[in-house]
Amino acid sequence: MRAYVGLGSNLGDREATLRQAVAALREVPGVRIVAVSAFRETDPVGFLDQPRFLNGAAAIETELSPQELLAALLEVERGLGRIRGGERYGPRTVDLDLLVYGDVTLAEPGLEIPHPRLHERRFALEPLAELAPGLEIPGKGPVEALLAELN
Description:
Layout: E1 2-9, H1 14-26, E2 31-36, E3 40-42, E4 53-62, H2 66-79, E5 95-101, E6 106-108, E7 111-113, H3 122-131, E8 136-137, E9 141-142, H4 143-150
Antiparallel strand pairs: 1-4, 1-5, 2-4, 3-4, 6-7, 8-9
Helix pairs in contact: 3-4
């Protein structure tokens, strides 16, 4: 299954952390990295009084279920020092979000696919458009059209 993972960091050596996250994902059994977007500086959303983010995305092929993939992403975050439970949308060493999982739509506690605010977030849509310009976000439309709506 082709899936897309959002990558973000705004504490410490952001680029090194994102590269470590990609390297850690490469080691997850049942996950193969297909491509990684360029990283881009972005302004924080929601909680504005914090450092700027470095964001990107990875395209992966996976044999894992959405729930197993999410568990792997959370484990990579923990391994890189992410502690959850602080300020919502606050500063973080690393943030790995399961953005899209094939054409699956899913809403269960702790996991919503596609990511519930993906269509509103330029910092997530731009790297997706770079990796897969024709990508269809299930239930929302083509990634390029969603980006155009934000302009």
